[in-house]
């Protein structure tokens, strides 16, 4: 549809979700939030989708909440109230999510980047937690951002609102990779191809394992992890993977054409 702000396409097991609202720097307007949630739901429920790539048109990945919509609205009517659901969808998606940035991200846009499993940006991309500079708090995005960042860096960048580059974003854990802008697509494809080699159930279970808080009791942790490991070794995917290894072939879950 010509008037949609978020596009959705599935090819060879990869669902590409594209933010396409360049007129406001892909700000998180009500329409963009709604369409993004719809497409994330579609990708999560489609057995043909193995990997989700979140990308954008225009020069900016995402500038954060739409401040024009926020102006004059009461606390109960702010668009930010809907934002946790988007971050949670990304964070808990059973399919790995790859963020692809060829331009800057700010505020809520950085929260989206942090919520994805893998994040790749052009060297030219910049980032900032600019909330304090307009009198608000980077509260909601802290849920996804803080687990990624080194604590000392988080204090500095959240409190100062300073702009930082992609190289530093890699160093502090926000990005996996920073590459020349003309190499972003190839780097995204490299990660997507690797992720597509994983079994769907194993990837979903691994993501859930990575999110879990672990007990201080080492014996309990080992018991839980042993149960998880044995269940997947003995399950259909584990047995298919073992058979494929022995027969020197690719497992049945690898998308055709890869």
From TrEMBL:
* Lineage summary: Bacteria, Bacillati, Actinomycetota, Actinomycetes, Pseudonocardiales
Instruction: Report which residue ranges the record marks as coiled coil.
Output: none
Q: Which SUPFAM superfamilies match?
A: ClpP/crotonase
Q: What is this protein called?
A: Methylglutaconyl-CoA hydratase
A GO MF annotation of the entry reads:
catalytic activity
Q: Which InterPro entries match?
A: ClpP/crotonase-like_dom_sf, Enoyl-CoA_hydra/iso, Enoyl-CoA_hydra_C, Enoyl-CoA_Hydratase/Isomerase
Query: Which Pfam families does its entry note?
Result: ECH_1
The domain of life for this entry's organism is Bacteria
Family membership noted in the UniProt record:
Belongs to the enoyl-CoA hydratase/isomerase family.
